[in-house]
Amino acid sequence: MKWILFDKDGTIIYFDRSWMKIGLQLVEDFMDEYDQAIDDKPAAYAHLGVVDGEIQPGTIMASGALDEMVQAFCDIAGQDVTKWAQNRSQTLVDNRVPENVLVEGIEDTLKRLKDQGYKMGIVTSDSKKGVEQFLENTQFNHFFDVIISTEANAVEKPNPEVLNPLFNQYDVAPEDVVIVGDTANDIQTGVNAQLGLKVAVLTGVGLTEEFTKADYIVETANEIVDILNK
Model's pTM, two decimal places? Predict the structure, then answer.
């Protein structure tokens, strides 16, 4: 293995509660905007994974890609709400105040991997602004050779094209790349891109039973060192 790609939220940092706040706000805004089109609001909340004002693990709003959320909104409203959902989501993301709480030991892990000669990158559904805030807060810039973020209307995980910035810029074969993430979408990205290793972590929103396609399921990303040294 030559490259290690880390998801950010739920992998390098504990899952940022500000994302849950955004998700809940997006759902509430959707319910208000399309109030007349939604016949059964309790069923709509349940379909999206919101119970008693909380987003439940393993649901669309917890770990689904934006296009999955948008499709759920369209299904509930019985009309195409794609443009509204994308624009509203981007506005909420742009105004997000991130909560960056590092997974214990992750800085030492990144240093060890760097010292061992691995190239590393971040592949996140966060925006460029959010990643810049994260890097400014943590001073982790020197660890990462490539940063892949997601803007409005951009390709998202698990579409393998999300990794084009890596493969277009560097001469590396997919089988020499590891992906580490906390959702089934992260792991599916590795499957779709035919990456050499897929490692799921339990520090985020993903549930063990969702990681059927992972090569390894570990408690934290720190265990990637032992996996690679085997």
Answer: 0.76
